[in-house]
Each structure stands twice: as structure tokens, then as C-alpha cells.
Task: structure prediction
Amino acid sequence: MDVRAAVAFEAGKPLQIETVQLEGPKAFEVLLEIKATGICHTDEFTLSGADPEGLFPAILGHEGAGIVVDIGPGVTSVKKGDHVIPLYTPECRQCPSCLSRKTNLCTAIRGTQGKGLMPDSTSRFSFGGKPVFHYMGCSTFANFTVLPEIAVAKIREDAPFEKACYIGCGVTTGVGAVVNTAKVEIGATSIVFGLGGIGLNVIQGLRLAGADMIIGVDINPSRKEWGERFGMTHFVNPKEVEGDLVAYLVNLTKRGADQIGGADYTFDCTGNTTVMRQALEASHRGWGQSIIIGVAGAGKEISTRPFQLVTGRVWKGTAFGGARGRTDVPKIVDWYMEGKIEIDPMITHLLPLEDINRGFDLMHSGESIRSVVVY
Result:
């Protein structure tokens, strides 16, 4: 079938709107009509050429919501007409990783997904008779796409697509890093580095968990108002700090009899390895946890003095907020619909597919929190 898609033909170039061909679902696959898709920094990371796993030509996009329009043989967990969110982190519930209950990183289709292919090692997309790669197993920058059954989460039908799509990445990654990875407790102190789409969701996750002090750190002064809107209690602009930022933050977190200072939990949402070190060293001696969410460029390495870790600080990474997609994503949709978390204010721009490159421009300029393409 013919579908409309924004195709990334090569790194560093704008996406091109084309009519591409999409083959229907094979066994254990589903065909989705994508109704809305968010534009995420991870898409930009790959499009820029910094992603070591980036493949071209490809149809990017991994933060979507839509409707099942067809199913392949063997599919039992969803049916035609179901509303779903595509999952770049699937949940097969059968692989050693899923069965361990220690991680959300399902390995069932990792080998082919990382190569831009479906589980049978072929692509369902083509253009001009030549294959086009899938992206993160999703390719939501097309109005129709095919995914494995284990990579779609069935959600309630009253959730608006242009809001629910954000749960496919940004919301779940941020909120999940708090509740699943860090397991933040009531009364905790916290620092969030980078108040973009992920960072703001970390902040509202901290508010949901009952954190006491929530410090936001960003060089963009306009993010102060955004952070406060979602529960931030203190704002720090590194450009306005005299001297060492870490020392300033440690001093800021000193409370009562605790004169050591440092946050119980810190979160890096920037992908900047220097900031990752600052986040670790701003966590509390003896028990501080620093969660790395941001994705660094190819070849980048993190470093710190071993003393920082020997004295009890912990570095943790998280992917998709530690969420098990088919199990947890429907719950987060419920949280949104029940008013426990906010999404609407963060959807700052709605765009047609033809304006998708403008969405990337808005991201670069810091004008948007999340731009969403509506089909």
C-alpha cells in the first residue's frame, strides 16, 4: 500500500515528504494507522549523524499513537480497531530478560530491530523499489506502519492521540525514571539537569512520588516557569552561578542537621557527559543516586574520581524509564486521563506532516517542549 512518510535519506539533511510503499503484516505483526507522533530529541540525535546505530534511508519517529487496522496470523493480544501506542522497547514476556523481572530491556527482537529490520530480517517499507529501514522498531513518521505484536501497547479509546503519543517516549521515560528506576520516596531531595521534554516529566514524576525539594538546572531562563508549573521548587541557571556549580548545589541541599549536603537523587536529561559528572557529584555522600537518562553522542565517555563512588554514590542508567511497555504504558495513560500527571501544556505545537522539519527547528531553538505531528 502507498503511505505518506517523512524519509531521512541521509544524515544531516532535512526530512523529505514522500509516498512510500508498505507491505502488510506478516505472522505476529500488526498494521497501524498512526494518528499522531511526537518529535523527540532521539530522532534528532539519529538524523544528525551522531547516532552510532543510525541507518539511512530510514523512516524515523518512535513516539506515536494510532489504531490497529490489520493483524497478521497468530496475533492474539490486539485486534482491528484497538487503540495502541507503538513500543520501541517491546515486552515479549518470554525472553530471559523479561522473565528475570530485573529489567525492562526485552531482547526478543533486539538483533533485527537494531538493524532497522523486522524480525524476519526484512523491511516492510520501500521507496523506488529499494528497502527503507525501520527506526527503533516503530517508524511513526509515516501515517501507516507495521510492528511486531509484542511492540504495541493497547490503551483506552478515550485518550486523545495527540496527547497519548507523548507517553510512547517522553512521559514514560521521565516519570518512569523516578518511580521505576530511582524509586524515589516521600520527602526526598532531588536535582534535575535539563528541563526539556524529559526533564519536565522527571519533575512531575518527583512531584507524584512526594519529593520535597525539586531543583531544576537549565541554562535557558524560560524553563524556570515551565519547571515551576510541574512541581519544581528551586531553579538554578548555571550561567548565573559564581564558582563551581556542584559546590553551589551541594550547599543548596543542606538541610537541618545534615551539613554534608547533596541530593538524594539526581537526574541527567541532557546527554552531556560533563553534566553527567556534575549530576553524580551533586548527589549525597553515602547514598546518593544519579540517574542517566540523556543519550550521549558516539564515542563519548563519562568519568569521575573513584572516591565519588567509593563513598557510596551510585550511577544508574535507565531506558524507557524502566517501564515494561505492554504492562505499564496503559497504566500511565490512565494516570493522564485521571489527572494524576499532565501532558497538555507540554504539547506546545501541533503540525501537519508537511511541516515536520519546522518541528525540529522549534526543538533546536528551545521554543517547543514537544511538537506533535497530527495525520
Notes: The mean pLDDT is 97.
